[in-house]
Amino acid sequence: MIERTPILNISTHVILAVGLLLILFPIWIAFVAATHDLTAVNTAPVELWPGDQLWANLTAAWELSDFGPKFINTLIVAVGVVIGKVTLACITAFSLVFFNYRGRMLVFWIIFITLMLPLEVRIVPTYAVAANALSPFQVILDVTGISWLVATLSGIQISLEWNLLNSYTGLILPLVATATGTFLYRQFFLTIPDELVEAAQMDGAGPLRFLWDTLIPLSKTNIAALATIMFVYAWNQYLWPLLVITDRANYGMVVVQLSDLVPDALTTGGGTPTWHYAMAGTLAVMLPPIIIVIFMQRWFVRGLINTDK
Amino acid sequence: MRRAYFKFSWVAAALLAPQLLIIFVFFYWPSAQALYWAFTLEQPWGGGNTWVGFDNFAKTLSDPYYWSSVQVSIVYALATTALAMVMAMTLAVFVDRQLAGYKAYRVALIWPYAIAAPAVGLAFRFVFNPNAGILSYLNVVMPGLWDPTQIAWQSVFTIVIAGAWKHVAYSFIFFLAALQSIPRSLIEAAAIDGARPLRRMFDLQLPLLTPTIFFLLVINITDSFTDSFGIVDTLTGGGPFRATDLMVYKIYSDGFRGFDYSGAAAQSIVLMLLVMALTFVQFRYVEKRVHYT
Amino acid sequence: MTRKWLLGAALAATSTALMSAPVSAAPVKFEYWYGLTGDLGAVVLETCNRFNASQTDYEAVCVGQDGYEKAVQNTIAAFRAGKHPTIVQSFDAGTADLMLSGEFYPVKKLMEDAGVAVEWSNYFPGIANYYAASNGDFFSMPFNSSTPVYYFNKDHFAKAGLTEAPLTWEGMEEAFKALKASGQACAMAYAPSTWIDLEQFSMAHNIPVASNNNGYDGLDTQVLFNTTQHVKHMEDQQRWIQEGYSQIRTAQSGKSARDSFVEGECSIFFSSIADHNTVHKIAPAGLNWDVQMIPVYEGFERHNTVVGGASLWVLSGKTEDEYKAAAAYLAFLATPESEEFFVSNTGYIPVTKTGYQALLDKGFYAKQPYVNRDIALKSLTFTEPGPLTRGIRLGSFIQIRAEWTAEVEAALAGQKTMKEALDTAASRSNDLLARFARTYPGKSFP
Q: What domains lie within chain B, and their CATH numbers?
């Protein structure tokens, strides 16, 4: 704050408080649902005030779902995705913005289009690729006749196989490829003044040195924002892990396990609607992303970053 | 625009290679196969297909229900994006003022993004429930006023609110990050020049925010077309009577649930073309007004 | 150079020797993907654990797939990549494509080939026929079976002067009137459901849902539900809502039919017998309730209803050992102990006659919370299944159900008449069926 503006301050507080209430209300409802028992949580009207079953529900949900190992697995996957995504997006955007070659925009669009086809649509053939990640290359070799050539000349049959099912790689790699990060970095890099680039060039720095010494320090807030978003995104993954991991004990992820607690409307009647366990599980599952967010807050703080250019 | 580049070398290509390789293997290769199905009648368990050319497209595009689906998808996308971005920007600007307690606000406002889908659906059901939710008080005033199971636009309203809710948190993070990277010296200089806070907001912060606004606009609109499946599934199931049958939900129902791979593939291509057209329009006409430097 | 070569050869020889050394036989594993979730899923998992504990030759690796649809969809994805399970739990509407693809191992043949004796006639016909070929050979193994009933509040009925739960729809309307007169604001909690309102309704009345004997006889099928008594039934349902006897209660509208019943707001609701267990668990003390078979209109002879739930399919493309293991597991499930375990922990009903008899002899159905749950079996076995009451075998069935639901919702919201709605649903369903037939040219159901 630079000057005294009491009226603006009060309205700021009011706006933020109202916004907070609106935003947090559904979370409050979920929390309250986690504190009641089976009968209470299935009775309308919805409970607005907490009950006393929180601990019981949390322990029940934890044991039912065997969350312990799943938390660790999901943590590994999320960290992997963050590191992979941040790195890939950065170097790709760097190439697209700081070099001038024909087809730059085309490459950018090629990357960007990956946002437009949801996973649900392409999940069946994507699974086939995960079952053998080298199959595209195998097919290319076969179709172009190279594998036939190699087989005839040397008697070696080329049979590429890399099974990504039930592995961390299979979980991390497909998630790392999306275009959001690249787009974000492109936007940021476009704001870098030409003077900085020219200064680096005059100092005799090559592109990689420029990237490492100048750009990355400048990108700290963007890295922090992207890392936070990506961590939560990977943490909350559901459809892909459900399909690719059948060895749930060793590689299961938390939200897949959580949805097992949520009553399924399709089974012709039968399942007990354990909403209290489902919401308790949700609270537990929600905790690590919240912690990461709180931890990453520091990087949004003004002043830590030297942005005076 | 930009004048300063590095000389093109193998470095540029090498930097591109990893991402391109991954999206080739995990996106383009499978998608080509999935989209090929749009031109055939595919048997789910394998075993063959029948080539039908553009038949699937003809069937999809001549279905009146499909066009209502397109319409509601566009309405949903625009409404959600507008609502989310306006709210997020307002909140970010006010949090950026760093008044007392702003750190708590910062954390709290990002929270919704961390919630997994089942909880969101359940919680919002309790909000919108015409018999026992918060909005049921409207029915006390006038019975039947609020009933998303009978009144179509109210059902659309519920998914717009739920969709915007999640996007507010996402947009908030980026707006705040962008605001925080505006050098303090610039703001102080403006203050010394006599600009009041609101004026500073409009003349200084807003223009510097335009790259982020553009980024979030594109991402939010794209996401609300391709990522909105979960919201519809937990809140309305596409109903009542198809009122909230978003394009992506229809694709999921027909393909994933109904095992109509070919129909779903044809619809996906139409969806992709629509989103591409919208994105192209944004890049062409909106990006012009973005201040990069 | 020579030393390295010798060392390398020695290492190679040792490792080969180690690898071919006799190892104690590890159990043969097979994978089973099931769709039930929550506590039901836990029971399924427990059947696997019990199987594994009961012998050492085979090991069942059971993976929950969070819902029937996802179980089938994920299996298809895995199948196309050659990584599918041996057994998949598939629900009724999801099986037409599988049947036509032929990519399954009929369980009758599986058990014969594996040398496991199964008394196929022991299965209740109303259950068996849904999952069998036209000659009676079982394709899949019945597992969790249910059928619809209606639940009614005995106290409300007593207050309205009703001494018995009606078995005709005309009687039902009389009951509605009596309930309303006695002060009940909501006599019936209604949630439109294809399974109950269309499919089971048609079974009980022995009227067709579609031509070709409900699709069994060929792929050039057309739906017929907009021409049968079903139309009158749906018009009645709409009329009862308008006249204030019943109310639409769905989860989306805030309170599901079951919850409305359990909380004493409504006196009647229709659901699967599988809900019998759930209602016991969530009902507050003092709720005095019971179940009854679904009603039929006067002038129609009551016939058997058919099963819902799911059955276990064995897929093609696995090894001989895996098939032996799968056969052992299926045989284990069919033992009386296993059946008793399953029906006592869920709301499902036994699938074999001997299983049912054993439970009766033990007085199982005389004790709470199982009292009168076997009325479902009475409904399933009311008559021998005929050509129209064997079951339904339609392609794109899930989408057909969705079309019916959307149109009925529109009619109930006043956007069109019920007849128009059903006509639209029928015509769109026929388009789907025609497309399905084109997808499988020259094929027919086995």
A: 51-289 (1.10.3720.10)
Integer Cα distance of B24 and B28 in angstroms: 5
Write out pLDDT tens, residues A219-233. Answer: 887 888 888 888 988
Q: Which of C46, C49, C63, C97 to mutate to test the interface with A (most CBs of A within 10 A)?
A: C63
Statement: residue C97 has pLDDT above 80: yes
Give domain limits for chain C: 28-146+307-380, 148-305+395-439
Q: Which residues 183-222 of A have a C-beta within 8 angstroms of B?
A: 183-184, 187-188, 190-195, 197-198, 201, 206-208, 210, 221-222
| Mean pLDDT, residues C402-423 taken together | 93
Q: Is A107 on the interface with B (CB under 8 A)?
A: yes
Residue range of the domain that includes A197: 77-224
CATH architecture of C148-305+395-439: 3-Layer(aba) Sandwich (3.40)
Indicate whether this complex's ipTM tops 0.90. Answer: no
**For the segment B57-105, what is each residue's pLDDT rounded down to a tens digit?**
999 999 999 999 999 999 999 999 999 999 998 888 888 877 777 778 8
CA-nearest residue to C425 within chain B is B241
DSSP string, A197-229: HHHHHHTT--HHHHIIIIIHHHTHHHHHHHHHH
Q: d(Cα C311, Cα C61) in Å, to the nearest integer?
A: 18
Q: Which of B15, B122, B182 sits opposite A30 (nearest CB)?
A: B122
Q: Which residues contact C6 (CB under 8 A, 6 or more apart)?
A: none
pLDDT digits (tens, 9 = 90+) for C222-271: 999 999 999 999 999 999 999 999 998 887 776 788 888 998 999 999 99
- Does residue A38 belong to the interface with chain C, where contact is any CB pair within 8 Å? yes
A162 in a structural domain? yes
Task: Dump pLDDT digits (tens) for A179-205.
Answer: 888 888 888 888 888 888 888 888 888
CATH code where residue A186 lies: 1.10.3720.10
C409/C403 Cα distance (integer angstroms): 10
Q: Where are the alpha helices (DSSP H) in C224-304?
A: 229-242, 257-262, 275-282
Give the DSSP letter of residue C95: -
CA distance, residue B136 to nearest chain C CA (Å)? 10
Tell me whether domains C28-146+307-380 and C148-305+395-439 share a fold.
yes
Q: What is the mean pLDDT of chain C?
A: 88
Per the domain annotation, does A159 fall within a domain? yes
- The pLDDT score that the predictor gives to residue A279 is 83
Chain B residues with CB-CB distance to C250 below 8 A: 149
Give residue A306's pLDDT band: very low, low, confident or very high (50, 70, 90): very low
Domain count, chain A: 1
Residue A12 forms part of a structural domain: no
Length of chain C: 446
Between CA B242 and CA C409 the distance in angstroms is 9
Say what the pLDDT of residue C228 is.
94
**Superfamily covering domain C28-146+307-380:** Periplasmic binding protein-like II (3.40.190.10)
Interface chains of chain B (3 or more CB pairs under 8 Å): A, C
Partner residue facing A305 (CB), from B25, B181, B219: B181
CA pair distance A184, A168, nearest whole angstrom: 26
Our CA-based measurement puts residue B197 at a distance from the nearest CA of chain C, in whole angstroms, of 46
Query: Which amino acid, residue C125?
Result: P
A87, A122, A132, A226: which to substitute to probe chain B, counting the most B Cβ within 10 Å?
A: A122
Nearest Cβ partner for B132 among C79, C255, C406: C255
Structural domain includes residue A174 = yes
Q: Between residues 5 and 24 of chain A, which touch chain B (CB distance below 8 Å)?
A: 5, 8-9, 12-13, 15-16, 19-20, 23-24
3-state secondary structure of C149: strand
Residue C8 has pLDDT above 60, yes or no: no
* pTM to 2 decimal places: 0.86
Q: Report angle CA A116, A118, A119 to the nearest 5 degrees.
A: 140
Q: Do C438 and B50 touch (CB under 8 A)?
A: yes
C74, C195, C275 ranked by CB distance to A242: nearest: C74
- Residue A46 pLDDT > 80: no
Enumerate the β-bridge partners of residue B284. none
